[in-house]
Amino acid sequence: MAKVLYVTCNLKPVELSRSLSVGKEFLDEYLRQNPDDEVHFLDLYRDNIQRIDADVLGGWGKLMKGGDFASLATDEQRKVGRIWKHADQFIDADKYVFVTPMFNLGFPAELKMYIDAVCVVGKTFAYTPTGAVGLLKNQGKKCLHIHSSGGFHYGKEWDHSVPYLKSIMGFMGIEEFEAVVVEGVDAVPDQAASFIAAAEEKVRTLAGHF
Which domains, ranges and CATH numbers included, belong to the chain? Predict the structure, then answer.
């Protein structure tokens, strides 16, 4: 039995969101084929991800100097503890599904806040004399990114969405990465339905080996 972490970052309901509707197609088919797997849902707008702020940096600084968790100020303990909770949940998962829209050639800010909360030294990566190494490497973990955009950006040099998430996963040691991109739905609205249908067909196929 695998643990799947299903991460969304969208303010729209499923029926009005291209990325969420494609994500639902994937998840429905995945669970049909893997009914015993656990799926844990994380809505980055709803679930109040802890951002890195002065308290977090202060707490980390004390810990790096050899202090223990109990020595941190109350707000430092609370905020660092929340980040560690998300990082531990991320580590515990076997598979990751990110479902996102494109905002201004990238992601909503909430996704970057989440990435900052799970990229934690000593948990998902470590520094070495030869550079940073991912601590989740060689564990069979895999990631699927379902992403939508109104224009045609995928594969272009100004696309800071899918390539960024792929590099972050690799940084933590998760090297098996696939992406399904629904693009052009606003640029060519009369073809939007066919673009979405093609993506839904692709994710249903992917569900069979994810």
Answer: 3-206 (3.40.50.360)
